[in-house]
């Protein structure tokens, strides 16, 4: 029996020396030390031994078990160490690696230009007024001296929702609403930024939706020279101190007299270039003295009060400022386009 035990030990130790994995080690532990293993079987057979033999064989059996256990323990410790090392390596953080750059958002170029224009006028004492984009015909046209049969309505093809409700074609209804709200009080000094809608076919310079900023001033003794001075100060803050303006007679139903305002081309300084079509001037504003009829409809006595109004397209100003060639870029949300304005 002693020989059997020794043989068992040898066999076990040999097999253990060739162990390759935790799984194999577990299998061998069960094979040699488990309840159904050969060692248990030997010990179970001890009852048949004589009283003298029993302690001797018992001692040998214990030694064999201890020897096998020792090797298994040792191997087990090795695996645990290995496992710990693996885990540490897997979880290791290399603090010297550069971080992943996070995606940075930016203000949309149109919002940027609106903010810039707002800042300039707020600096001149204006406040910002807003109104609905779905508007009543009355505010969009009639109160602005454009009665239903007025031919100038054709200038602004509109999206009508009902006979009386439409998508506003201009931000001017906000001026009417402000006059109504102020009930004859002066001064009014507002700018109204916002989206407007016209039935235009979209191309590089036209969009069925675009952004306007309009201004309105009403007070006693407001003159054309005040309008000119205000606009000159605005364009000089927007495009630089050397910028000049030029007023040309024009027609709008809600102003009288009306002017188109040209600004000296910031690209070429007025010499002539592709942007200004070699004229040295860029047309960016419409303006004029508020029509007496509009004042009257807004609740202001045109004999006592005068005012001026002006309006500009934000897209056009942004396109000139940043050299953007197609108005559609503003609305297609192409990140390649928008990302160019991250650091401007
Ligand atoms: Zn030019």
Keyword list:
11 helices, two-stranded antiparallel sheet, 2 domains, alpha+beta, BirA Bifunctional Protein, domain 2, rod-shaped, 19% strand, binds zinc ion
Describe this structure in words.
- The chain is α+β, with helices and mostly antiparallel strands and 344 residues long.
- It has 2 domains: 2-90; 109-341, Bira Bifunctional Protein, Domain 2 (BirA Bifunctional Protein, domain 2, 2-Layer Sandwich), CATH 3.30.930.10.
- Helices cover 40% and strands 19% of the residues.
- It has 11 helices and 9 strands.
- It has helices at 2-17, 22-33, 38-44, 53-91, 109-123, 137-140, 172-182, 224-239, 292-297, 314-322, 335-338, and strands spanning 127-128, 134-136, 165-167, 188-197, 209-219, 245-252, 255-264, 281-290, 306-313.
- A 7-stranded mixed β-sheet has the order 1-4-5-9-8-7-6, sandwiched between helices.
- Strand 6 (245-252) and strand 7 form a beta hairpin.
- Helix 1 (2-17) packs parallel to helix 4, helix 2 (22-33) runs antiparallel to helix 4 (53-91) and helix 5 (109-123) packs across helix 10.
- Zinc ion is lined by residues 265, 267-268, 272-273, 275-276, 280.
CATH uppermost class of the largest domain = Alpha Beta
Number of domains: 2
* CATH fold-level assignment of the largest domain: BirA Bifunctional Protein, domain 2
Strand arrangement, largest sheet?
1-4-5-9-8-7-6
Spatial extent as radius of gyration: 44 Å
Helix content: 40-55%
Shape from CA axes? Answer: rod-shaped
Name the CATH architecture of the largest domain: 2-Layer Sandwich
Can you summarize the main beta sheet? 7 strands, mixed
By DSSP, the count of extended strands is 9
Number of helices: 11
Q: Would you list the SSEs in sequence order as H and E?
A: HHHHHEEHEHEEHEEEHEHH
What is the mean pLDDT?
Answer: 90
Strand content: 15-25%
Provide the CATH superfamily of the largest domain.
Bira Bifunctional Protein, Domain 2
Bound molecules: zinc ion
Terminal Cα span: 92 Å
Catalytic activity: tRNA(Phe) + L-phenylalanine + ATP = L-phenylalanyl-tRNA(Phe) + AMP + diphosphate + H(+)
Protein name: Phenylalanine--tRNA ligase alpha subunit
EC number: 6.1.1.20
Domain Aminoacyl-transfer RNA synthetases class-II family profile: 111-340
């Amino acid at each position: 029996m002693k020989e059997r035990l020794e043989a068992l030990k040898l066999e076990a130790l040999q097999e253990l020396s060739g162990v390759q994995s935790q799984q194999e080690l577990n299998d061998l532990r069960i094979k040699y030390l488990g309840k159904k293993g050969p060692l248990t079987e030997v010990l179970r057979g001890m009852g048949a031994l004589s009283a003298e033999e029993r302690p001797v064989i018992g001692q040998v059996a214990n030694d064999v078990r201890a020897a096998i256990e020792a090797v298994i323990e040792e191997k087990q410790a090795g695996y645990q160490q290995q496992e710990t090392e693996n885990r540490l390596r897997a979880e290791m953080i290399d603090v010297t690696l550069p971080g992943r750059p996070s995606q940075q958002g930016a203000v949309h170029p149109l919002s940027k230009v609106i903010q810039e224009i707002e800042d300039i006028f707020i600096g001149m004492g204006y406040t910002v007024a807003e109104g609905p984009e779905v508007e009543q015909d009355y505010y969009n046209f009639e109160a602005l001296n454009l009665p239903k049969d007025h031919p100038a309505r054709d200038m602004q093809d509109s999206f009508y929702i009902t006979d009386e409700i439409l998508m506003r074609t201009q931000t001017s209804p906000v001026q009417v609403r402000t006059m109504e709200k102020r009930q004859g009080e002066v001064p009014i000094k507002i700018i109204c930024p916002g989206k407007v809608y016209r039935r235009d076919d979209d191309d590089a310079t036209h969009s069925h939706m675009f952004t306007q900023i309009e201004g309105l001033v009403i007070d006693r003794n407001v003159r054309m020279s005040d309008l000119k001075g205000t606009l000159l100060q605005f364009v000089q803050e927007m495009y630089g101190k050397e910028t000049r303006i030029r007023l040309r007679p024009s027609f709008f139903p809600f102003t009288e007299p009306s002017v188109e305002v040209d600004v000296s081309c910031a690209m070429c300084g007025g010499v002539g270039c592709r942007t200004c079509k070699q004229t040295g001037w860029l047309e960016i504003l419409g303006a004029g003295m508020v029509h007496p009829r509009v004042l009257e409809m807004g609740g202001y006595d045109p004999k006592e009060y005068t005012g001026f109004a002006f309006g500009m397209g934000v897209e056009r100003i942004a396109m000139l400022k940043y050299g953007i060639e197609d108005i559609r870029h503003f609305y297609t949300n192409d990140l390649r386009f928008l990302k160019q304005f991250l650091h401007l």
